[in-house]
From TrEMBL:
One term of GO molecular function: ATP hydrolysis activity
Protein known as: ABC transporter G family member 22
Top-rank taxon: Eukaryota
Keywords: Membrane, Transmembrane, Transmembrane helix, Transport
Mode of membrane association: Multi-pass membrane protein
Bilayer-spanning residue ranges: 288-308, 320-342, 372-390, 396-418, 430-449, 497-515
An example Gene Ontology CC term for this record: membrane
Species name: Zea mays (Maize)
Domain ABC transporter, first and last residues per copy: 2-97
Localization per record: Membrane
Domain (ABC-2 type transporter transmembrane): residue spans on this chain: 268-477
Length: 523
């Protein structure tokens, strides 16, 4: 696989990385460890110059909701990702689809130049222009999965003329060949052999009142072209292809070796993926829309609970309601952010893992830890606003303990979202399951129902909302009033902290094992 490049029809790229960052990270991960980091970066820059991407190297790739480079530039970045490793064989799946004729010609000219440098380039292509067609060295024409022609592209038209199929009007060779492959003989001469066969088949239908069409059917044309190729060309071409070629023992050993060769060490893979993860997701996490959402919510809460007074029973219950809302809000928010992580990156993960860019463990740890700095930024803003506006205990100790409790809740909730997303790898199914789970955890959180039937009371111990709420109560009140608790005895909080830490670790282990299982099943 290290000697083969494959460019898919759909451009699988990170929308928020620039062209230069995309190729640099690919170079750092894919190129052999015998090269220094500086040499790998220089190789990425060489590819940028070779593909003519200098003008847009600092522009984001872009996507459905993000403005970025043009379609032709995106395709060149995808090709650059593969030719970084200097592959001897490059596959491309419809590289000109969706591009205008000028951009498509530029892409094909680029592929032609790569082939001129001694590489083998194999590409599927639909409806090429005549200028594109004349760039091809060899041509394979398929119809319904059967081979209709294989050989030099320049000899395709003479071959079909030799078997009686020739265009009756001036026509793009590619259009002519595609018409033949689909059995369409409009404006195409029909060979006498095929014409006679059709007349013989229709001879017995002359007495029928229905109108008889003497033109050959698509099936007749297909069978004729397959038979012509098998009798005239196939044996000679197969003999050429099956001729043995001398291969050195060193090359044989390299090709048959099953040992994986990673471009970097595990720690380097983690470091590179961590940096890439932060650069890619900072735009989503720190977008003005999300910051505004959190600030607006926190201000509204602060105004509703403005300087709440816990000295009265009504004020105490109101303040407990605020603490429960904080526990629920920062449990709900991270779950529905994290469930999209692996389903959205599934295509990228499959593509990069297929060429051994990194180990799954390095990717998983980098992906989960690179989210933490971004995940913890917004809660700080939220807590600073709400805590002091609502009149909660205004000491540094109580504030930071409340903040740490919220942080622990966020990391546990994020683990649940990762586990659901990695297990299902389907956004709709994951969202449905997460909705039911979060709703259950919220109802079992100890605020709405304090007297839970014994046969289902175990459910609350699985709820991170329950443990977070109890910790927040313990931070604010010492001792916690009986009216706010579901149990008589409340310890110093060690049980709740231990439960949340177990969730942080357990959910992530489940997510990692689910990803390994998905890889083993080939999904």
């Amino acid at each position: 696989m290290r000697g083969i490049g494959f460019v898919t029809q759909d451009d699988v790229l990170f929308a928020h990385l620039t062209v230069k960052e995309t190729l640099t990270y690919a170079a750092l991960l894919r190129l052999p460890r015998t090269m220094t980091q500086q040499q790998k970066k220089e190789r990425a820059m060489d590819i940028i110059h070779e593909l003519g991407l200098e003008r847009c190297q600092d522009t984001m790739i872009g996507g459905s909701f993000v403005r970025g480079v043009s379609g032709g530039e995106r395709k060149r970045v995808c090709i650059g990702n593969e030719i970084l490793i200097n592959p001897s064989l490059l596959f491309l799946d419809e590289p000109t689809s969706g591009l205008d004729s000028t951009t498509a010609l530029r892409i094909v000219q680029l592929l032609h130049d790569i082939a001129e440098d001694g590489k083998t380039v194999i590409t599927t292509i639909h409806q090429p222009s005549s200028r594109l067609f004349h760039k091809f060295d060899k041509l394979i024409l398929l119809g319904k999965g059967s081979l209709l022609y294989f050989g030099k592209a320049s000899e395709a038209m003479p071959y079909f003329q030799s078997i009686g199929c020739a265009p009756l009007i001036a026509m793009n060779p590619a259009e002519f060949l595609l018409d033949l492959a689909n059995g369409n003989t409009t404006d195409v001469s029909v060979p006498s052999e095929l014409d006679d066969k059709v007349h013989m088949e229709n001879h017995n239908l002359e007495n029928n009142n229905s109108k008889i069409d003497y033109r050959p059917s698509a099936q007749d044309v297909h069978e004729y072209l397959v038979d012509a190729y098998e009798t005239r060309v196939a044996f000679k071409e197969k003999k050429k292809l099956l001729a043995p070629l001398p291969i050195s023992d060193d090359l044989k050993a390299t090709i048959t070796s099953s040992k994986r060769e990673w471009g970097t060490s595990w720690w380097q893979q983690y470091s590179i993926l961590f940096c890439r993860g932060i650069k890619e997701r900072r735009h989503d996490y720190l977008s003005w829309m999300r910051i505004t959402q959190v600030i607006a919510t926190s201000v509204i809460l602060g105004l509703l609970w403005w300087h709440s007074d816990p000295s009265t029973l009504k004020g105490l219950e109101d303040q407990a309601g605020l603490l429960f809302f904080i526990a629920v809000f920062w449990g709900f928010f991270p779950v529905f952010t994290a469930i999209f992580t692996f389903p959205q990156e599934r295509a990228m993960l499959n593509k990069e893992r297929a060429v051994d860019m990194y180990k799954l463990s390095a990717y998983f740890l980098a992906r989960t830890t690179s989210d933490l700095p971004l995940d913890l930024f917004l809660p700080i803003i939220f807590m600073v606003i709400v805590y002091f506006m609502a009149g909660l205990k205004a000491t540094a100790t109580h504030f930071f303990l409340s903040m740490l409790t919220v942080f622990l809740s966020i990391i546990a909730a994020q683990g649940l979202g990762l586990a659901i997303g990695a297990t299902l790898l389907d956004i709709k199914k994951a969202t449905t399951l997460a909705s039911v789970t979060v709703m259950t955890f919220m109802l079992a959180g100890g605020f709405f129902v304090k007297s839970v039937p014994p046969f289902i009371s175990w459910l609350r111990y699985l709820s991170f909302n329950y443990h977070t709420y109890r910790l927040l109560l313990k931070v604010q009140y010492d001792p916690v009033p009986d009216i706010l608790t579901t149990t008589r005895h409340m310890d110093s909080g060690g049980t709740e902290v231990a439960a949340l830490v177990a969730m942080v670790i357990g959910y992530r282990v489940l997510a990692y094992l689910s990803l390994r299982r998905a890889k083993a099943l080939g999904s």
